Amino acid sequence: MNASDAYEKIQNQWDQKLPFVVYNAPDSDRLAMFFQNNDIMYSVEEYSDSGFIFAPFDTAQKTILFPYSKSKFYSTSIPNHEDIGQRQIETTPQTTEDLTVKTEHIRLVEKGIRAIQSGVIKKVVLSRKEKIKKEESINPLLLFQRLIDKYAKAFVYLWFHPKVGMWIGATPEILLHSSNQTFFTMALAGTQPYQGSKTPVWEDKEVEEQGIVTDFIVNELSLISSTIHTSATYTHRAGTLLHLRTDIKGELKSQQSGLEDIIKILHPTPAVGGVPKQKAKSFILKNEGYDRKFYTGFLGELNINVEEKVVSNLYVNLRCMELKEKEATLYIGGGITKDSDPGKEWEETVKKTATMKSVLF
Asked: Is the pTM of this model over 0.85?
C-alpha cells in the first residue's frame, strides 16, 4: 500500500463512522493503522489482549481497545507532505473569559501549593482545558500531517471512535516499552522553550520535580523488578519545548509479574498526576473541576507480535486535542511543587497551548 492509498482508506473508514487509529512512532518513517471492522466499543478486560489501547486518566473509567482480531492492520511509508505552512500563531488580546480562566487556574495552583506545604502531597500536576472555535471545518488528516512534519521525535496519532469522538496528539513521553520480561520507561518533568543553540538553564524547582518523578518510578518498580538501570538526567527536546528526562529500564523478577503490574505502578505517572500517586490523583479529581477524559491517560500498541516477540509500546497522552467539526478542545497542565510560582505556572500552560495552536492555524 502506498501513502495516498493509506490516506484514502483512513478517509473511507471515517466516512463510514468506523473506529480507526493512524500513528507514527518517534523517529520512524512508517505510518501504522488499525481499522476496526465494526462500531462496537470494546474495553480491555485482560492485559493479555492484543490491539491498540486508549486509556483515560481516571482508572475508574473504561479503557478502550481496538482488538487485533476485530481490526485490519496496515503499515506504509510516510509521504513527503506538501508545504503546509508552519506559521506562528498570532497573539490576540485577552478577553474577559480568558482573564477568568487565568484567575481560576492560578487559584487552583495556589490550592495545590498549600496542600504540598501542609504535607498532604509532595507534587501534583494541575491542568485546564481550552476550547478553540473555528469558522471553517477542521481537517483532522491535515492536522495529523502537520504534527508528523513538526514532531519527528514524538508519538503522533489520530484516533476515532463514533461512540467517543476524535482525538489527536503528539506526545513526547513513553509510558512503557516492553518485550517479554524486559521493560523501558522514562521520567519526564520540567518545561522550557527551545531556543536554538542556547544552553538551557534549569531552575531548582524543575530539577527537584524531575528528582521526585524519577525516585517514585524507580522505588515502585523495584518491587517487581530484579534489576533497574537509570541514565543520567539530560535535556530532551520535543518540538518547540525542552524537558528534563531520565531513562529507566529493567527486568521483571518472575513470570508472575507482567504488563498489568507495570501499568498499575506507572499510571498515572508522577509527571501527569503527582506524588504520592493516590493522594495526588484524589486531589486532582476533587479540585480540577473538569473531566480530563483521555488527556494524561495512555495509548499505543498492546501485545503485538514482532519478529517472534510480544511487544507493547505505550505512550502518555500529552499534547493532545479533542476534535469536533469546528471546535478543538486543548488540554494542558504543569507540575506543581512547593517552590512553584502560580503566575509562572499559568504562563507555562499558555506556552504549551501555543504549541498545539500553531498546528490549528
From this structure: yes
